[in-house]
Amino acid sequence: MNRRNRNEIAARVARDIPEGSYVNLGIGLPTLVGNHLPPGLEIFLHSENGILGMGPAPASGAEDPDLINAGKQPVTLLTGGCYFHHADSFAMMRGGHLDICVLGAYQVSATGDLANWSTGEAGAIPAVGGAMDLAAGAKKVFVMMEHLTKAGESKIVERCTYPLTGIGCVKRIYTDLAVIDVTARGLEVIERVDGLSFEELQRLTGARLIPAPEAAAA
Amino acid sequence: MIDKTVAGIEEAVAGIHDGATVLMGGFGGAGQPAELIEGLIAQGAKNLTIVNNNAGNGDVGLAALLKARRVRKVICSFPRQADSYVFDALYRAGEVELELVPQGNLAERIRAAGAGIGAFFTPTAYGTPLAEGKETREIDGRHYVLEYPIRADFALIKAFRGDRWGNLVFRKAARNFGPVMAMAARCTIAQVDEIVPLGALDPEIVVTPGIFVHRVVRVASTRAADVAA
């Protein structure tokens, strides 16, 4: 089968982001989506630390320590972009003003519960950042992740076993194997990578899948 | 004549007492009032409760304050970072308490304190371990968690320019927590790159009005571009 690599998953997510969207890309894997947004389309990237209209990384030597993204990497501001303080930034996130956020995940459940901030391991230092605010507040939460853990376990599960980030918040899951919508009917497979049958995908997935009416191999 | 500017760091951090709750601006290094924190280390206050988005990076700023064992408790959203080894070691040794707060709740709890709000219902963290034991309510079909303000004795923030009335403007994404923290402390201390005459800041773009600011101290910029200029 044609398993998607990380950049290919990011490119697939980018295809679902229409012009004019206000979008937050979570730290880690989702940041890659920014590299695949179609040039020429005006899409507003939001950064939780107070930026709308965030641009790509600056040229080497042009970094500004006062202009960083949520992952604390240097970025730029697009013409027309702006800055604001943290309460305004999170009002955008919690107040339902962001159209899409893209988050990484440890697990997503059959009902769209998200676990992405803690493995619950004893002794681990917990850190949550803005993940719970995005999960609760964005109009659409997209999750981008590998389908399986390194140990080969499904990250799509009937019920999350890791501590939750949000309940019933995930709308669409993009993995290296498939694109899956979380719907009232269940987990609808809207796309599979070439050479992967629905049955094989189901075998690799820890929750019941249903074919979407228009489902087809990508 | 009202002049909130002070001559130096020592004067700026005077009076911060043992056991104080101190809001500390910054998101990682951006907006971190590094010189005020150094001043606080030299000043010697201990048993502090520090409110910041993170829990220190490397060996400077908040990390240095932690390393000097002045901090009893950290309230933050994201302590664990690649270079948060000072906090990590103290936390694992049980020598510093951590209250982990989702970042939006952190900002809003600080804002609420500054705005005189007694408490508020937020959708963030409902149904998660971070809402355990907290009061919840269903409002118009949605579930919310009751959160209380974070009030502080002092706020240490970094702005770009300030005047003698305490009006402040910030620089780029270094603004982050500065404006909300300024509102929420009994005494807000701002370090600025530049002190400008009254009237030099366009009143239409003042970000933090001087009513929220009590002391302003100039710290020469260390940004490479400014130093070169």
Structure description:
Chain A is an alpha/beta fold and about 220 residues long. Chain A is about 15% helix and about 30% strand. A ten-stranded mixed sheet of chain A has the order 4-3-2-1-5-8-10-11-12-13. In chain A, a hairpin with a 4-residue loop joins strand 6 (about 105-110) and strand 7 (about 115). The mean pLDDT of chain A is about 95. With about 230 residues, chain B is α/β, with parallel strands linked by helices. Helix content of chain B is about 25%, strand content about 25%. In chain B, strands 1, 2, 3, 4, 8, 9, 10 and 11 form an eight-stranded mixed sheet that branches. A three-stranded antiparallel sheet of chain B has the order 5-7-6. In chain B, helix 5 (about 105-115) packs across helix 6. Chain B starts with 8 loop residues before the first helix and ends with a helix. The model of chain B has no long low-confidence stretch (mean pLDDT about 95). Classes of the chains: A alpha/beta (about 220), B alpha/beta (about 230). The interface between A and B is large, with 39 and 49 residues.
Topology:
The complex is a heterodimer of chains A (218) and B (229).
Chain A: H1 6-15, E1 22-25, E2 44-47, E3 51-55, E4 76-83, H2 86-94, E5 100-103, E6 107-109, E7 114-115, H3 131-137, E8 140-144, E9 156-157, E10 170-174, E11 178-183, E12 186-192, H4 198-204, E13 209-217
Parallel strand pairs in A: 1-2, 1-5, 5-8, 6-9, 8-10, 12-13
Antiparallel strand pairs in A: 2-3, 3-4, 6-7, 10-11, 11-12
Helix pairs in contact in A: 2-3
Chain B: H1 9-12, E1 21-24, H2 34-43, E2 48-51, H3 62-67, E3 71-76, H4 85-92, E4 97-100, H5 103-115, E5 120-122, E6 136-139, E7 142-147, E8 152-162, E9 168-169, H6 178-184, E10 185-195, E11 215-218, H7 224-228
Parallel strand pairs in B: 1-2, 1-8, 2-3, 3-4, 8-10, 10-11
Antiparallel strand pairs in B: 5-7, 6-7, 8-9
